[in-house]
Amino acid sequence: MRGAPAGGAHRLAGRTGWRTPPVGGRRRLADATGPCPAGYGPDPGRWFLVRPWTRAGRAIDRAAKEADTDDDAPLEVLLEAPPVREPARGGLPPGRLAVRHGGPLAIPLHAGRPTVVANFVSTIDGVVAIATGPRGGGSDISGGSVADRFVMAMLRALADVVVVGAGTLRAAPRHEWTPRGVAPAWDSDFATWRAALGLAPQPTTVVVSARGDVPPEHPGLSRPDVPVVIVTTRTGALELARRGIPPGARVEVPSDGPLVAAADLLRLVGTLGAAIALCEGGPHLLATLLRDGTIDELFLTVAPRLLGRSADARRLGLVEGVAWPAREAPGTVLRSIRRDGSHLFLRYAIAAGVRPSPA
Ligand SMILES: NC(=O)c1ccc[n+]([C@@H]2O[C@H](COP(=O)([O-])OP(=O)(O)OC[C@H]3O[C@@H](n4cnc5c(N)ncnc54)[C@H](OP(=O)(O)O)[C@@H]3O)[C@@H](O)[C@H]2O)c1
Question: Model-level pTM?
Answer without folding.
Answer: 0.84
